[in-house]
Amino acid sequence: MSRRIKVISNNSSMKSLRAYGKIRDMILTGVKLPGTRLILTELESELDIGRGPIREALMRLDRSGLVKNIPYKGAIVATPPTRQEITHIYDLRVDLEVKLALEAMKNLGKAEFKNLDNLLKTMEDLPEDHYIYDHEFHNQIYKASNLPHLVGIAQTLSLSVESVLTVFRWDKEICKKVNTEHRAIVAALKANDVDGVSMCLEQNIKNGLNVINETYARIHGIA
User: Fold this and answer.
1) CATH for 2-77?
2) I need a labelling partner for 31 at 20 to 30 A (CA). Which of 24, 85, 102, 149 fits?
3) Is pLDDT above 70 for 186?
4) Top-tier CATH class for 83-220
5) CA of 35: how far to CAs of 29, 198, 213, in Å?
6) How would you label 63-74 residue by residue, b for 16+ Cβ within 10 Å and e otherwise?
């Protein structure tokens, strides 16, 4: 019975991720404009996915800032962050996440590094949901800082740009580059290399900004 429940749960999770990706892409490409109501019955027909996974996807899109769930009105397409705002978000991310990683470096032990190495092995298989493991990699490091309030802020900043970042994040070459950067971050953490951690993590975060800039260029045909 437990195996059947697990299979059902995994299927529901995959449908939710698929709904999330499709709705996100419709918003970012202008199929669903800011202010548009996202009606469950219409989305069911458009996506050929059930209401449960779509509800989960809309909740996640709300956390990322692309959708606003308004009482008595339902889900409405929000205005995505501008390129200027995203640039400022990334400046804040670099400063905060480097601080968290350096604090975490004091607390990371064999068990934590084993978990990070296992995550990296999974990522090197280039799974379709690679970006989820990317988030988990960073979260595992930052949680070791024992600064939960700042970790929460870092997660909020990351979620605010996730929807834009992941449009082309499944590109295999991008995933391979991320994996290489993550290996360098772990190596620097293991060596207690302050400058190395700062440099490798800053590069990894800023390369995410480069992916977003390329995303905007592809979607809107701008340089």
Assistant:
1) 1.10.10.10
2) 85
3) yes
4) mainly alpha
5) 15, 40, 24
6) ebbbbbbeeeee
